[in-house]
Model the fold of this input.
Amino acid sequence: MIQLAYRLKGHPVAIHVVESERDLRAFEEFISRHRILGFDTETTSLEWWAEGFRCRLAQFGTGAETWVIPVELGPAFAEAVRRALRRLEWLVAHNGTFDLHVIEQTLGIAMEELAPKMWDTSLLAHLVDPRAVREKGPGLKLEELTKYYICEKAADEVKGSMKGIAKKHKTTKDRIWSEVPLFDEDYLLYSGMDPALAYRLFQILYRLVPFLSRERGLIGWEHRLAHVTAKMERTGYLIDVEYAQLRCGELTDEQEKWEGVANTFGVENPNSSQQLIEVFESFGLKLTKRTKPSKNHPNGQLAMDDDVLSGLKHPLADAVIKARRAGKWRKTWFERALNGRGPDNRVHGSINSLQARTSRMSISGSIPAQTFPSGDGYVRHMFLADEGHVSCSIDFGNMELRYLAAFSRDPTMLDAFLNGRDLHQITADAAGVPRKIGKMANFLTVYGGGWAALMEQAGVDEETARAVLNAFAKTYPGVGAFGKRLADEARKTGFVWTATGRRLPVDAGKWFRALNYFIQGGSRDVTARALLKLDEAGFTPYMRLPIHDEIVFSFPKNEAPEMAREAAKIMAFPVQGLLIPADAEIGERSWGSVLELEASKH
Done:
């Protein structure tokens, strides 16, 4: 047995690494003495659905003692891990959803068996403080939380060590996970400390979760939701491989066409800012925008982003924008899906059930759904309902604005929703502008935008933008009063509390954002509630993605109308006496067909 040790803020952590089947007896004796342990796995990659994916190590431990089990050595070691997982009453993991996938795929224990006893420190961390490091918060990654709550030295030495391990073995950080020798001492230290750090974080974070959040049941709520989204990840989304390949070919041709145009101006690489700067300056064009200062460039460098290129009004700039766009679309949407699909041609996006400061969910990995063009089936046509199924999208009608009306109790806004009046037209008429500008003003209020944002989005001058927002304030005085109450609360406490008992920090001097945080966080919880209720009703096998106020389904074709009605009924939710309705749209097999059907009705 290999014995390692690490001092964490002066306190020793003993790491036992099992080498032989004989060592397993001591490991099982350790397991028998505990009801709850930190838990983690080390794998060959993050793609748990891919062919050749393996669990290499499984680690268990307290804050002072951990055990590392080399699963890939053989069946006896895998079985010891299975017994341990089933014997323990509670498990503590960071981003535990991933480990649930790993165990299910490699050891055959269904997520449904382990999820009810999993404590996830990433969820607890968000309930304590959801701010990212860039927002001057603790962050949500294990390395970031270790640095903030436990020990900065350990975060750098242990959690930041994989880059050095990859360098030692002359490989990349992406490839090191499958290539590092199983008993590399640095790798074992990195692995062995994970359960200890998760265990200590749990002890720290659980006590820091606000009392109101615990009283309202948010801890259990978020863990149940994470399990529902994990089941959706497991199902994955079938893709139309032929369609994706066709789009890749078209975008490659498009990129090469515009790169050829750039070449005629002497630009060999349209992605080279330096080349572009030199050529544009040779044309006598003046460049002023600079990048943010850095260590190597204290004054920043001349920028060459799309904003700069759009402002140049030159054929070369237009060609570069189009070449870059074609390459980005191909790589981000179609190639990512093709390269990330499993043997069954399904992609398994990572559904981050508790993300962003306001708790809004996001999707990353092979399905970056938030980046898809809105109201356009171009990318969504790649995603298919199952064989014999049709795609169905059910979304909430004006969720954020209804939520705002429900809590602000503004009489005009409430009347509009209760009596079917056109809220966007009411705003537009009050300001004397077209309906689309009234609609922009309504949503900017929800999203925390001001007159400058309205100028940019609506293409109007400053005087008009200010007049529209002033008209909004006069038309819906209850919204302004509610926003002021929330801003005053944030100014006094530094936080705004959502209706579900979630505490959201508001930055000093940005108190006006309290309204936006309240609405965004509360609206997210309406979607979260819908997912939980749909899961209880047995709809999870048919759910594919949750995207803000929309849930995408794959329903059997013959049963789709009835199932869509039932799912929409479950999703609809009254808030403060005002119903937030859910509307279903059934398309053909591709997700994109739903959007085209919706567009044809307008």
Q: What stands out?
A: Residues 2-209 form a domain with the Nucleotidyltransferase; domain 5 fold (CATH 3.30.420.10). The longest strand covers residues 36-43. The chain has four domains: 2-209, 239-346, 350-399+522-600, 400-493.
